Each structure stands twice: as C-alpha cells, then as structure tokens.
C-alpha cells in the first residue's frame, strides 16, 4: 500500500479505534444522542434494514469458532437456554399480555411486546457481556442456536397470537428473517475468508468503533421521534418507558434465577443475553410497517439496552471476582 494512502487511512482508523475503546460509555451515549438530534433520525430511518444487516455481518464475522465448538460439547445447558429464549419467553409474554387484556386495550403495545418476545437475542449481546467482564462464550453459542431457530419460532408464534396484526403473513415473516440472517452470515463468511481471523482480531478496536457508528444509525432511526412523543403525551411516553425498563430487568432477573445452578456468573451472562432482544431484526423483517405505539415502545427499549451494560458493570465485576475465587479454591483443594 502506498505511503500516501496509508497516511490517509490512518486517521479514520485511529478515530474508530478511539471510539471502540470507549466501551459502555459510548453505547450509553448513543441513546441520548439519538434523542437529542431528531433530524438525524428522519434522515437515517430509511436505512434501518441496512444498519441491521451490517450489525449482523459484524457479529457473525467475529464469532469465535473455537469457543463455539467447545460449548457445543455441553448441549444440555445450551439447549435449555435456547429453549427458554425462543419458546419460553414469547409464550409467557403472550399469555400475560392476553390475560391482562392488552391485546384489546392497546393492540400496538401488545404487538410490540409480542415482537420483542419472539425476537432472538441481539447479536451484540455476547460482546456486551464481554465488555462488562462476563464470559461471553455460553451466550454466544446460545445466541447462534436461537438465531438459527427464530425464523421458525417467530412464524409459529405470529400465526398463533398475532392474527392479522402484522402487515405480512407469519410465513412471509419467517422467510424474511431467514433471508436476512442467511445473507448476513454469507457476507460475514466471505469477509473472514478474504481477510482472515487474525486480521479481524488485530483490528478489533476499529471494528468496535464502526459497530458503534452503525448502532448510532439504528438508534437514531428508531428514536428520532421520541422527543416529539414525550412532548405530545408525556404521561403515556413515561409509562411506556417504565414498561420497557420493567420488561428488560424482569427478563434479566428471571433468567438469572432459572439458570443459577449453572453458576451465578454464567446465569447472569445468559440473563443479559435474553434481556437484549433483537428488535431491529423484527423491524427489518416487517419493513418498519408498524403502528405508532409499537414504534414508540421499540424506541424506548433502546434506553435499557444501551444503559444497562454501563449500569450492570459493577455487578458483573463482583460476580466475576466471586467466580474466580471459587475456581481458585476448587483448584487448591485438588492439589
């Protein structure tokens, strides 16, 4: 590469590396930046599908295949976590929402909760787990399994509970999900073949920085109208925001309790993954053809998604330190 071209590329790479090094601070700041600049949301909303595709490509590109194969040797725990996030969560959400009459009193909110429950975990969830000091390998394997299943489980739950609430049929929803996931996996595989795993690992921080920029595109597109919604109906917007936080932390707490026998650190990592639902994938699959209340809920879920890793870091560090002490004590007892 000519020295002049290398010099031109060095500055943006350094900027991306700096941004990637900001970690949870940058992820948390995205939510506030997206709300603070509404025109940015209007500009970027047409590119939601492209942003989701790039986020998926980056996540698939960085899958640690060695860790993936290692955890496949423990299929029981992976299978249980996958069944919980793909079947247990949407089923419980559907039963609670139906039982409370939400499908009749607020169809848009009911649709939002159902799409959230039906979604697979966010592709960035293992990276966020690692970012706050948790072991990300188990969430990674569960994420891969859940993502492979979600076109089929989402189609099933859509046909059972959503009826004609979606602008596309349940079968079309499943096929679109499958197409998006397959295309992003193919693109990520080609990138790995072209550049190699070592190069991807070597440029980890610039890739993190680029990932944060794409997250900003997605968050701005989804959250561009939040400020207007708060001004138009502040009580309703606050209630929806509180519901978004309640759902997030309930999923985190319940999942951690369910899997606590696997170890508190692992259970907490699985809980973090389950609570981070990939609503962007659902937006891409439905082409954003959703009611305003559904959009508002999706927008406000970005606050717990982006703020929770920063808020949960002290807890994760204590759990990691406790797990290290237990492992050390077990090692000493065997010597």
TrEMBL record:
InterPro entries: Na+/solute_symporter_sf. The keyword Thylakoid does not apply. The keyword Membrane applies. Keywords: Membrane, Transmembrane, Transmembrane helix. The chain crosses the membrane at residues 52-69, 76-97, 109-133, 140-162, 174-195, 207-224, 236-259. This is Na+-dependent transporter. It comes from Bradyrhizobium agreste. The lineage of its organism: Bacteria, Pseudomonadati, Pseudomonadota, Alphaproteobacteria, Hyphomicrobiales.
């Amino acid at each position: 590469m000519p020295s002049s071209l290398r010099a031109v590329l060095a500055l943006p790479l350094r900027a991306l590396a700096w941004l990637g090094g900001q970690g949870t601070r940058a992820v948390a700041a995205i939510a506030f930046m997206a709300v603070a600049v509404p025109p940015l949301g209007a500009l970027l909303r047409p590119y939601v599908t492209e942003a989701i595709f790039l986020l998926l490509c980056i996540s698939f590109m960085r899958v640690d295949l060695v860790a993936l194969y290692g955890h496949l040797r423990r299929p029981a725990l992976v299978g249980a976590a996958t069944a919980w996030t793909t079947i247990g969560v949407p089923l419980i959400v559907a039963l609670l929402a139906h039982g409370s009459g939400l499908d009749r009193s607020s169809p848009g909110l009911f649709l939002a909760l159902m799409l959230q429950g039906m979604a697979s975990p966010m592709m960035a969830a293992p990276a966020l787990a690692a970012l706050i000091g948790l072991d990300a390998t188990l969430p990674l394997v569960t994420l891969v399994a859940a993502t492979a299943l979600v076109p089929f489980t989402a189609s099933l739950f859509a046909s059972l509970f959503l009826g004609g609430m979606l602008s596309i049929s349940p079968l079309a929803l499943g096929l679109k999900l499958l197409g998006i996931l397959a295309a992003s996996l193919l693109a990520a595989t080609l990138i790995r073949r072209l550049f190699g795993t070592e190069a991807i690992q070597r440029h980890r921080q610039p890739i993190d920085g680029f990932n944060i920029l794409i997250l900003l595109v997605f968050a701005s597109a989804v959250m561009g109208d939040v400020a207007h919604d708060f001004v138009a109906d502040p009580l309703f917007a606050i209630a929806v925001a509180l519901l978004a936080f309640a759902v997030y932390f309930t999923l985190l707490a319940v999942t951690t309790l369910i899997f606590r026998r696997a170890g508190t650190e692992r259970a907490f990592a699985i809980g973090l993954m389950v609570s981070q639902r990939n609503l962007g994938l659902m937006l891409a699959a439905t082409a954003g053809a959703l009611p305003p209340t559904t959009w508002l809920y999706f927008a406000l879920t970005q606050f717990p998604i982006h703020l929770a890793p920063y808020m949960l870091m002290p807890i994760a560090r204590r759990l990691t330190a406790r797990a290290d002490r237990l492992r050390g004590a077990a090692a000493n007892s065997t010597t």
